[in-house]
Amino acid sequence: MQPLMKAAVLNKPKDIEVKQIPIPKPKRNEALVKVHCIGVCGSDVHYYEHGRIGRYVVEKPIILGHEVSGTVIEIGEDVKNLQIGDRVAIEPGIPCGECPHCRSGRYNLCDAVEFMATPPFDGAWAEYVTVNSDFLFKLPDDVSFEEGALIEPLSVGFHAMRRGNVGPGDNLLITGLGPIGLLTIEAAKMFGVTEIYGSDVVGFRRDLALEMGVKAVLDPTKGDLLEQFREVSGNKIDVLIETSGNAQAVSETIRLVKRGGKIVYVGLPTVDQVPMDMTAMIDAEIDMLGVFRYVHTYADAIQSLAHPLVDLTKVITDQYSLNEIKTAVEVALNEKEKSIKVMIYPNAKDIK
Ligand SMILES: [Zn+2]
Ligand SMILES: [Zn+2]
Prior knowledge:
The protein is α/β, with parallel strands linked by helices. The protein folds into two domains: 182 residues, Quinone Oxidoreductase, Chain A, domain 1; 136 residues, 3-Layer(aba) Sandwich (Rossmann fold), CATH 3.40.50. Strands 3, 7, 8, 11, 12, 19 and 20 form a seven-stranded mixed sheet that branches. A six-stranded parallel sheet has the order 15-14-13-16-17-18, with helices on both faces. β13, α4 and β14 form a beta-alpha-beta unit. α3 crosses α4. It is globular, with a radius of gyration of 20 Å. It starts with a strand and ends in a 7-residue tail after the last strand. The site of one zinc ion has 9 residues, from α2.
């Protein structure tokens, strides 16, 4: 009989249960990874609550989770880059490798990508997962499994830095200080930025951003953001990274950045259409850039963790075992005032 493992299966919205299912067998180019920890992402929570995100619909039971690290315990015969026992972070999207986007190096735009925990593809809220070894990245001994799992959400901010061509001389405002916004602070440090500012309506998130090293925080409920920015920094905003997806925040971005500035849009707006002052945008030659996931970030982000000021783990506010998955997801869904990143552990004894 095939050996079994625990996996958290979402049967339909709000109906998630831990089941015993067969441990997958690695194909020739794959490794079997024993999962150490997996983050709960906003997208997981959204599938849990609504069963769909845009054109992606949960039509049959699915395993969620795509922010993963673990240990390689078995490798397929063609795997050359890894050995059994390697500690790894998992890049969760496997692109086709053949289409024009993949060939041009922008594989995050591949239409045929198989992305973990995006229907119909299973994710990794499970004890074991098989992954194409090209998308497994070895973790140095001094990098924790938790940091390894957080490379995934960090990568979004890391890619935003590249899209905005952000560098040491830039004054940066990050709007929205959820998990992605907060980890974008760490990505900005990796790119040498010192003038990092953040804004959010939630006090707890602003406090955490200050702890993570932003120069100052702004509160959109306390008056004009541009005036607040000038007051605390004395500068103009060179690059704005929008992570909140709040329609009003998105709409306001053009007015906030300096002439010739850049806006990088990361958060998906909660409505289909957002009014934008395009005349002002053209007049000021503002660059507007979209970010979809990330591309070629893992190896560089893992190396950048050695930066002395970078600490990803401050965003972990809650830890649960896989058996407690329902509670874990409900916390991520309902406790946005005090919870940022919920981390899941297949083995309860790994919780520190
Ligand atoms: Zn994610
Ligand atoms: Zn492709």
